[in-house]
Amino acid sequence: MSKYVVRFYDFYLSHTTASALVALAIFLVGAFGASKLSINSNQLDLLPENLPHVQDAKKITTMVGGTGFLIITLKNVDRNEGDKLVEQARQLKRSGDDAGAKELVKKANLEYAKTRKDDLVRAEVLKKASDEIAAELKKDPKVRFVQYKYSLDFIKRKFLFFWKTDDLSEAIRRVSLKRDDLQKRADPFFIDLGQGQVRLDLSDIISKYTKVGKKEIIDDYYVSPDRRMMVLLVKPAFSMNEIDSSRQLMAEISAHIEAMKFRDRGIEVGFTGLYPTYVDQYDSIDNSLRPTLLLSLAGIAAVLGFFIRRFRLILALLVSLVYAIVLTYGLTYFVIGKLNLITAIFGGILAGFGIDFGIHFVFRFKQEYWQSEDTMEAIKTTVLRTGPAALFSAATVAAAFVALILSEFKGFSEFGAISAYGIVVTMLSMFILTPLQIVMFEKWFPGFVKSLGKGSPEPDAYTPKFNVARVSRLVVIGSLILTVVFGILARGIAFDHDSRNMLSSDIPSEYLREEMDLRYDIAGDPLAVATDTIDEAASLYEYLDPPDERLQGTVAQIVSPFSFVPPAVQQMRNATLIQNFAAQTNVPAALIPPEFKQYYGQYLQITRERPFTLYDLPPKMRDQFQNVESSPIKGWLTFIYPEVDRMYFAQDLARLDNLVGEMHYPVIGRLTIQRIAYEIPNWERKLRKRFPGSDVKKRVQGMDLSEREINGVIEILNRIDEKSLKSLGFFDMVNQEILKSRPFKSLEDVQKTTRVARATGSTMLVAEFTYIIQRESRWIVIGTSVLVMFLLLVSFRNIKSCLIALVPLITGMLAMCGLMVIGNVKLNYFNIIVFPIIIGYGINSGIFMLFRSLELGSAVQALGRIGPPIMASNLTTFAGWGALLIAVHPGVRSMGFVACIGLAATLAVSLTFLPALIEFLVEKGWYRLGKST
To answer: What are the backbone dihedrals phi and psi of residue 34, each rounded to the nearest 5 degrees, phi first?
Structure first.
């Protein structure tokens, strides 16, 4: 093999012009690919396509463009004490103090109560501004629709049907007392004996029904309860993943706003929602990509300047490094097509890793040239002697990245693939392009190579001035003690399950979204469930609303077209109460006190209303839950709002996924059964019998039913004809199931037929990400370790040498974990992936040290020769990973931080414990070093 390597370099370096032109041609091809490379900001593409949540998310995107909106917020420019408290609450919530945030919001509402009158006036200004913006947006073909208000007349007219029957009954009781008191006082013979007027107060009941489907019903506009913010929900005619289209639309909206001079009117306009957030995340990564790479290159140049101190030689290494990075980017374009939000930062890491090979090449070349004073001979000797160590070092580092390729999360698998072939490309560039530049510099600047050795002779032998055996024993004993201590500390390493610590916290749209969540008391992004038919949507709603014991504390609210249609039984009971009250109440208008006269017209209208169904709703209320007309996929959407305070931790994400990730809901739901139970008195009269069983109610299948009602429901379902079923208002799917599956023997039998529905959304996709990392991280670490061990066996072909080479890795990893515990640095779903990389790289220094020790026959001699390049190469790798510390994404920053800790630990072990251990083992006769000539 060696002779072929020698022949290649003889030919390659003797034809420098031709070799340079070939290298330039390859570079231009790579540069072309690199220039075409872009960042795919669609985080959905990072998850496996076969995951049900991913498939459902794509389905919903096709139906309605996704669950997200481009949200325009309008606020008053002036800030009062309430606004300051809301901002403090937002900061507390960001830091994880949800309880503290809630307390501050309560205080803020007290402050807003003091300025309520002025805020109502300002809110009218915001509403007028929203009308103007909406008018412009409706003209834009890139906008599918705008939601910022809709008439609540229908809801207000049907208001009492939304009340629980018990609440309505209590309200009627209070109003009846007031009515009776008014009638008594209207009697000319009434004598007031000091008993006082009956006070009518319904505020405690009305407060329960101020919202329907997360929308306040006290104002047509989407204005916040504190009247300090107004929002417009814009649904663009394109996907949120189309970054350029989103950016263009926001620019157009900004131009309209600028022309309207809102700032002069005291209005501040902002953007939030998934569309602006995607743009902000993309821009943040894109804007930090170049500084990260430049910072990495600057740090590398500084390290090279300190250790090498020859401008042209440093230039040669940097040229080889940039050449390799450009080639890797170009290869990525041809192999993968795009970068993602994780792989976008690999350039700086690759630079830090890749320059190591150049450093070892240059240091060894200088040493060899000092011995031979022949440039060609020194290059070939360097390649033959350092090449194997570099090759196996590259293989072990690449092995760590290769293990990542197996990850289902494409952010990691593509990162592993790009970094793996990037390491190989960089190693080849350093050992092929750097020698070519040295030869060319020697031609252009005669004496260049000779000048490299001046003042830095490398002696054939180094005689230490201390007792090597004694110092080695002390270092080994001390290192073992520290290893045990760090091993004990490592057991305390903790995992950070709070996803807020892994999200970008300085994105403007995120600031605004967090403020909006606090002001409107909503969870940011709901989960969406797609059903093919309205029948299925109805049965799903019966299954979910109200949330049962399992869902309570995890699900806050269900929003569906049926959120605007109270249960039929409740409507009928309320209608009976309202009609009876109206029939009993005949108070002449003249007797109504002045403070109640303004409500008399509403009273007359409300008491004349009748129960209603889904198809009585105004079209705009129904349409927001349907697919857009142009969608090839038809269906209906149901939205699940999780408890926002509980959706940051992995265990809560897992619980939510277990509850609604895949739901098997019965076709015949609870409301259907309760509607049948309502008919029991009619059927008993019809059949002239009483259904058997006790009237004591108990909890069954999520419903409060008596034994008599259960028996009645089963018998009615078994006997009712198709015409009577349709008259009850059930959907066709339910009617067909009843007719097809009867006779029923029990309530469980009635609900045995189920359909499957899955909730999806950003929350569920985060849950899928955590599952993948939890499932794969252990096996990736094990796989990397096995690959590294295999490569060591191939490299040294000696089990003792393999175990010795593993010392920096094992000790360094324990030290890294111990230092993380001391520094209170926690693992998370991003930095845990650094562990296999440290495994691959941590062995790097051990390989070079052991190879040189075997060559020179002495670990002390090897340390003198290989110590500086190991130090330099580790520092350049520090520069690569350290550049991530300026990354916007906290998870990515944590990767850089943990990597730096691991690199520092393995470096310290490689330069202290490893050489001392080798000398100690040699002294004891447990290991032999063979000196090479």
So the answer is: -65, -35
Which residues is 514 bridged to in the sheet? none
325 pLDDT more than 60: yes
Tell me how far apart the alpha carbons of residues 844 and 393 are, in angstroms, rounded to a whole number.
Answer: 5
Mean pLDDT estimate for the chain: 85
Q: What Cα–Cα distance (Å) separates residue 725 from each residue in 500, 537, 566, 736?
A: 51, 19, 20, 10
Bond before 743 cis per omega within 30 degrees: yes
Instruction: State how far the Cα of 280 lies from the Cα of 247, in Å rounded to an integer.
Output: 9
Lowest mean pLDDT among 108-112, 353-357, 635-639: 353-357
Give the tens place of pLDDT for each residue, 747-788: 999 999 999 999 988 778 777 888 888 788 888 888 888 887
Predicted local confidence at residue 442, as pLDDT: 87
Check if the beta carbon of residue 304 is closer than 8 Å to that of residue 319: no
If we measure between CA atoms, which residue out of 544, 564, 614 comes closest to residue 759?
544
Residue of 590, 591, 575, 578 lying closest to 179 (CA atoms): 591
* pLDDT confidence of residue 456: 43
The 10 Å Cβ neighbour count of residue 125 is 16
Residue 930 has a pLDDT of 62
Separation of alpha carbons 194 and 902, rounded Å: 84
What pairs with residue 400 in β-bridges?
none
Residue 516 has pLDDT above 70, yes or no: yes
CA nearest to 434, candidates 367, 357, 370:
357
pLDDT (0 to 100) of residue 933: 33
Between the alpha carbon of residue 733 and those of residues 559, 665, 723, 755, the distances in Å are: 21, 13, 14, 11
- Which of 379, 506, 389, 285 shows the shortest CA–CA distance to 869? 389
Distance CA 129, CA 260 (A): 9
Give me the residue label for tokens 């008399």.
600
Place 471 in a pLDDT band, splitting at 50, 70 and 90: confident
Point out which residues pair with 39 in neighbouring strands.
339
Mean pLDDT of 202-231: 79
807-to-223, 483, 485, 846 alpha-carbon distances in Å: 64, 11, 16, 8
Q: How far apart are CA 850 and CA 637, in angstroms?
A: 64
DSSP reduced 3-state for 408: coil
> Would you give the distance in Å from CA 418 to the centre of its chain?
22
Segment among 200-204, 345-349, 527-531 with least mean pLDDT: 345-349
H/E stretch holding 108 reads helix 98-114
227: left (phi over 0), alpha (psi -120 to 50) or beta: left
Q: What is the pTM of this model?
A: 0.77
Mean pLDDT of 710-714: 95
Q: What is the crossing angle of helices 410-444 and 311-335, to 10°? A: 140
Q: Per DSSP, what are the bridge partners of residue 705?
A: 698
Is residue 812 a contact partner of residue 906, using CB atoms and an 8 Å limit? yes
Q: State the DSSP code for 649.
A: B
Please tell me the distance from the alpha carbon of residue 125 to that of residue 132, in angstroms, as a whole number.
11
Ranges of H-type helices in 806-889: 807-822, 834-856, 859-882
The four Cα atoms 306, 311, 313, 316 give a dihedral, to 10 degrees, of 110
Question: Which of these, 533, 559, 755, 564, lies nearest to 638 by C-alpha position?
Answer: 559
